[in-house]
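stage 2 :: seqdesign
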């Protein structure tokens, strides 16, 4: 069970975030400013930080910088500072995502889940969706419990799709993420690779399918 540290000088905001995260299976701890947050981090195993910027004693900018230097955990800034230069500063200091106030608590929950999933995948190098399991370190793919052979580009493409099930990934994103498609002289290479993945992934066995979203890109759908 993941523990989320909520850092905000507004007690009501801390309570609101806690109320919405608890039913989703998250444990929470909280702090009213940056100094208090660092004490919590030193004494508690924390998996992610949700922090405000405008706080007394140590603000969110400084706290983000310190956390990024000491811990490898995701950071979500939640703040009323919504200008582009503020977001750019936040990302420059190391935040992973940025949500402006007032915010929809359900959106915050979705962003927390997405960040936790991304970090877990990056840390373990594995992803499981449907009946498919991919191990990036060993370049292994299990489909329905059986090892199956994929070429390197096929593996990278499938890993990118499996890491974001249900989300439409644009052709441009997949080309940039997997790499190499634009340099081989065939603009249809991505489509060919998608076709190859579909041929190898028996939907009934794999429990997943790759759908083309016309004009946008591709999406991995769980069929179970």
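stage 2 :: out
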């Amino acid at each position: 069970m993941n523990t989320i540290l909520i850092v905000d000088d507004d007690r009501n905001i801390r309570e609101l975030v806690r109320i919405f995260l608890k039913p989703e299976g998250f444990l929470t701890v909280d702090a009213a400013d940056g100094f208090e947050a660092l004490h919590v981090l030193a004494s508690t195993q924390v998996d992610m930080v949700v922090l405000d910027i405008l706080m007394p004693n140590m603000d969110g900018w400084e706290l983000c910088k310190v956390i990024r230097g000491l811990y490898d955990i995701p950071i979500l800034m939640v703040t009323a500072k919504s200008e582009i230069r503020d977001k750019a500063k936040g990302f420059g200091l190391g935040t992973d995502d940025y949500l402006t106030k007032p915010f929809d608590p359900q959106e915050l929950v979705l962003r927390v889940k997405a960040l936790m999933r991304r970090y877990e995948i990056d840390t373990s190098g594995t992803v499981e969706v449907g009946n498919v399991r991919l191990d990036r370190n060993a370049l292994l793919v299990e489909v329905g419990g059986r090892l199956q052979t994929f070429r390197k580009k096929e593996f990278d493409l499938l890993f990118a799709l499996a890491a974001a099930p249900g989300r439409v990934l644009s052709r441009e994103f997949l080309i940039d993420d997997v790499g190499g498609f634009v340099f081989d002289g065939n603009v249809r290479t991505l489509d060919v690779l998608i076709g190859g993945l579909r041929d190898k992934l028996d939907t009934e066995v794999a429990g997943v399918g790759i759908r083309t979203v016309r004009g946008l890109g591709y999406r991995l759908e769980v069929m179970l």
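stage 3 :: structure notes
- The radius of gyration is 20 Å.
- The domain at 126-222 is CATH 1.10.10.10 (Arc Repressor Mutant, subunit A).
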